[in-house]
Amino acid sequence: VFRNLQGGSTLTQQLVKNAIRTNERTLVRKLKELLLSIAIEQRFTKDEILQLYLNEIPYGSTNYGVESASQSYFGKSVREITLEEAATLAALPKAPTRYLNDPEALDGRRHAGVEPGSVDQIVGGDVELGRSLAVYLRESGRDAGGAGPGDTAGP
Fold this sequence. Notes:
Blueprint: H1 11-20, H2 27-43, H3 46-54, H4 66-74, H5 83-91, H6 96-101, H7 103-111, H8 127-139
Helix pairs in contact: 1-2, 1-3, 5-7
C-alpha cells in the first residue's frame, strides 16, 4: 500500500525535507516530516518559513541561500536584483548544476509559461514561489517589469 511514497509537498515540507537530508522513502520518514512541518507552521509565519527556505536551499556551486547566490552570480544583494535576476534565482534550485551548465535550459525554465505581466508563473509553474516573489517585488517597490527605485528595466 505505501510502496511509492512520493508526491507534491508544501514549502514547509520542502524545508523540513532539506533539513533532514535523507532520500529515505518510508512512511516513518513521511510522518516525521509531517509532524515537523506542523510544528514549524505553528511557530513561524509564512513569510518566515519562506525566508528560512530561501536561505538554506542550494543554488549551485557552493552557494546556499538566495543572498549568497545573488552575490555570487550578480555581484549585488538580493534586495537590489531585477525581476529577470529574481526569476533566474527562482529557477536554479530545481536543478542548479544542470541550469548553470546549460544557459538555454535555464532561460527556458526562467521563462516557462510566462505571459506579459504574469509574475505568478515566472518560476516555471511554481505558483507559491511566484506569488512570494510578487510580494517581495511589491514590498520592495519594484514593478512587474523589473524596474525598481533607481533600477533600469532589463531586456
